[in-house]
Design a protein that fits this description.
globular, two-stranded antiparallel sheet, 6% strand, 67% helix
Length: 236
C-alpha cells in the first residue's frame, strides 16, 4: 500500500474542498471560469521548474511511495499536486473572503509587499551557490512585483490572511511529503542546494515556494474575475 501514499495524500487534500464546491454560500464552483486559467498558467511555470530541478538533482521522488507512472521525469502524483493544492488553497481564500469581511491586514499590506520584494531579491543574490534558495526567492520577488503592478495592495491583505491559514494544511501535507510520520521522505531534497533550515521536516524555502505559487494563481484569478465584472458593466 505504500506506493499509494502520495496519491492518497492528494485525494485527501482534494476531498473536502471538492465536496463543498457547490455549498450555497461560497458557491466555489461558479468561479471555475477564473480558477482554471489561473491554475493552468501557474502549472505551466511550476511544472517546468519542477522538471528542471528534478533533472539536475535539486530534488527527487522516492519510488517507495509513488505509483511509478512518469511523464517528463515527474511522477503522475506530482502533476496532480499542481492542480489539487491550488484548488484547495483558493477554496480557503474564498471561504475567508466570505466569513472574514474585514481586511485585517490592509493597514500594512502595501508596506509588507514592497518590503518583501527587495528582501527576497537580496536573499536570492547572496545565496546564488544554493540553487533552490536563490531561484525560489528571486522568483517570489518577481511574482510579488507583478502582483503589485497589476493590483497595488488591493487584494494582498486578503491573500495574506489566506496564505497564513493555508500554512496549517501546507505544513501537514508538505510535512508528510518531506518525511514526517513516515519512514522516508516522499520528496528528497539535495540539502547542498538549500539553506538546510527546516520547520520540522519542511525546508524553509518551501514556504516561499508556496507563497509564489498561490500568489501567482491569486493574481490571475482575481484579474480574470475583474475583467468579467468590467465586461458585464460595459454591457449594461
Amino acid at each position: 500500500m505504500e506506493k499509494y501514499y502520495y496519491l492518497g495524500l492528494m485525494i485527501f487534500t482534494l476531498s473536502y474542498p471538492l465536496s463543498q464546491s457547490f455549498e450555497h454560500r461560497i458557491q466555489y464552483a461558479k468561479n471555475l471560469y477564473a480558477l482554471i486559467p489561473a491554475t493552468l498558467i501557474m502549472a505551466a511555470i511550476f511544472i517546468a521548474w519542477d522538471h528542471w530541478f528534478t533533472v539536475i538533482g535539486i530534488w527527487e521522488f522516492n519510488p517507495r511511495y509513488i505509483l511509478g507512472i512518469y511523464f517528463l521525469e515527474l511522477p503522475v502524483e506530482e502533476w496532480a499536486f499542481f492542480f489539487i493544492v491550488p484548488y484547495a488553497c483558493v477554496f480557503i481564500y474564498e471561504v475567508l473572503k466570505y466569513f472574514v469581511k474585514k481586511d485585517i491586514f490592509k493597514p500594512f499590506s502595501k508596506h509588507l509587499l514592497l518590503a518583501l520584494i527587495p528582501i527576497f531579491v537580496f536573499l536570492g543574490i547572496i545565496h546564488t551557490d544554493k540553487m533552490y534558495t536563490s531561484v525560489n526567492f528571486i522568483f517570489a520577488a518577481a511574482v510579488l512585483s507583478v502582483h503589485f503592478i497589476i493590483f497595488k495592495d488591493k487584494h494582498f491583505g486578503k491573500f495574506l490572511l489566506a496564505y497564513l491559514v493555508t500554512l496549517i494544511p501546507f505544513m501537514l501535507v508538505n510535512g508528510i511529503l518531506t518525511g514526517s510520520f513516515i519512514d522516508e521522505p516522499i520528496v528528497k531534497y539535495n540539502n547542498e542546494e538549500n539553506l538546510s533550515i527546516r520547520i520540522g521536516t519542511v525546508p524553509i524555502e518551501d514556504t516561499v515556494y508556496n507563497l509564489s505559487m498561490l500568489l501567482l494563481i491569486n493574481t490571475v484569478y482575481e484579474k480574470v474575475k475583474e475583467n468579467k465584472t468590467f465586461r458585464r458593466r460595459e454591457s449594461l
